[in-house]
Design a protein that fits this description.
Mean pLDDT: 80
Number of strands: 10
Strand order of the largest sheet: 2-3-8-5-7-6
Low-confidence stretches: 21-26, 79-95
Distance between the termini: 24 Å
Largest sheet: 6 strands, mixed, barrel
Helix content: 40-55%
Length: about 475
């Protein structure tokens, strides 16, 4: 039995998988193969969606952290605040880095390094942001106004929810949407920044500085939006106390994930004064980046187990097909068909069943992944309809019950909290769609290989059928 004969026999089993038994009743091998194809397709849909969503979510969060928080690289002063250095160490600075002007000059020097797109001086500190209706902890970031230029990544990833995205005066401020929501602030309102300073007697006392809110900004990731207050660099450098803040130069390169990134880092390090230290984004965010990677691997592994379980249906379908084709196999072997030819035919049948599942499941998975934001919104709307109905119904019942057993003091003024499948406090408000074609191809190839692997045992069993024993039974 040559290869062509095996292919023809496999085609026959696929095109007419169901036969009638001796009693003339229909059999279920064909339905089993169709069911196996559908099971594989249905298992591939969530796998493709999970892969796409996890990659998009990780890339979206990582890009915001790298571009807006840690920069591609950070230059710090040996990990020590400048104000805590000795007079000898300060005197040894080539650029006078104990002043705002010195840090700005260092940023200009680093911006001239090949591969560096921009370098921004910054001073960060922790403080309180207070409004007319409350206060909240905040990360005070003093940055140069040009960091919000239209060509910068800040302008690309940030959007102005209200007002303008600029620091036009020494007492202007940009606040994250979370801060604005907590303090009930709008553009034009006054926000008071409370920081600490050291008095001549050595005591740490609070310092309150008012700023005018120029705009409310958001990057779509509430974990960052709920902390940041941006103020001009010159103002913030003198406002934030040295021992309670850090001075750095944030560097942006052409591509933080490119092949030339390490070479650019080496050139930057070569141009730094001896007291400065360079840290890369993956060193600053090591724990968070590894957490993202391990979570992604675990999700894909769980989805792969679902595909593995679905592939077992191919094996069971081939077992039923071999049982129904025992007489046909016996006749073929009695006229010269080889065991290897029969095994090859059944393996090809299992492969085609897996290929049909891939051809159906992968496109449907891609379609769901591309529209995942709409799907999630639709599911949330449907859930909220039922949850809101149950909320009103339970409130009416509790009010009625309270009137019967007490003096009617039960209150139904609780606010209804809508259901959110992906809480924006922990995830991005909108999932970026990133189709990982390499991963999708690996899924398709792995499913085909898995379909062949689970087909091996039933195929070998079908090939070992003894024609004489089988024909005696018929």
């Amino acid at each position: 039995m040559n290869v062509k004969a095996s292919i023809l026999y496999a085609t026959r089993m696929l095109l007419s998988p169901s036969q009638k038994n001796v009693s003339g009743e229909g059999t279920s091998a064909g339905r089993s193969i169709i069911g196996a194809v559908l099971c594989i397709a249905l298992s591939l849909i969530p796998l493709v969606v999970v892969l796409t969503v996890s990659d998009g979510m990780i890339e979206g969060i990582t890009s915001r952290i790298v571009e807006l928080s840690s920069y591609h690289m950070q230059v710090t002063i040996a990990g020590t605040p400048i104000s805590r250095l000795s007079l000898e160490e300060r005197a040894s600075f080539q650029l006078g880095l104990d002043t705002a002007q010195g840090v700005e000059e260092l940023a200009l020097q680093l911006q001239a390094v090949p591969g560096v797109v921009a370098a921004f001086p910054e001073r960060q500190g922790i403080g309180l942001a207070a409004g007319a209706r409350g206060r909240t902890g905040a990360t005070i970031r003093s940055v140069p106004p040009e960091i919000f230029a239209p060509s910068s990544s800040f302008a690309t990833l940030f959007k102005a929810e209200e007002g303008t995205m600029s620091l036009s005066s020494p007492r202007s401020a940009l606040i994250g949407r979370g801060v604005a929501r907590n303090l009930d602030l709008s553009p034009g309102d006054t926000i008071r920044v409370v920081t600490m300073r050291t008095s001549p007697t050595g005591k740490i006392i609070p310092r309150i500085t008012p700023f005018t809110v120029e705009g409310i900004v958001s990057c779509g990731y509430q974990e960052l939006d709920s902390l940041w207050v941006f103020i001009p660099f010159e103002t913030g450098y003198t406002l934030l106390e040295g021992s309670l803040s850090s001075v750095l130069v944030g560097i942006q390169t052409e591509d933080a994930f490119g092949d030339d990134f390490l070479e650019t880092a080496w050139l930057v390090e070569e141009s730094l004064p001896s007291q400065c230290r360079l840290r890369l984004w993956n060193q600053i965010n090591t724990a968070q980046y590894e957490n993202f990677s391990s979570t992604r691997i675990m999700l894909i592994f769980v989805m792969f187990l679902i595909v593995l379980v679905a592939s077992v249906n191919v094996s069971s379908a081939l077992v039923m097909l071999a049982m129904e084709r025992r007489r046909e196999i016996a006749i073929l072997k009695s006229v010269g068909a080889s065991t290897g030819g029969i095994v090859s035919a059944f393996l090809l049948t299992g492969f085609c069943a897996g290929a049909a599942g891939v051809a159906l499941g992968i496109p449907l998975g891609i379609l769901c992944a591309v529209n995942v934001n709409r799907i999630i919104s639709g599911i949330e709307e449907i859930l909220n309809i039922f949850v809101h109905f149950w909320y009103n119904l339970s409130g009416m019942f509790m009010t009625f019950l309270d009137k019967i057993i007490s003096d009617g003091s039960y209150s139904t003024t609780r606010d209804f909290v809508p259901v959110q499948l992906l809480d924006p406090a922990f995830y991005l408000e909108e999932i970026p769609i990133v189709l990982p074609w390499g991963g999708i191809f690996a899924i398709a190839a792995g499913t085909l290989v898995l379909s062949v692997v689970v087909s091996v045992l039933p195929s070998i069993k079908a090939g070992k059928e003894k024609p004489l024993d089988t024909l005696r039974k018929f």
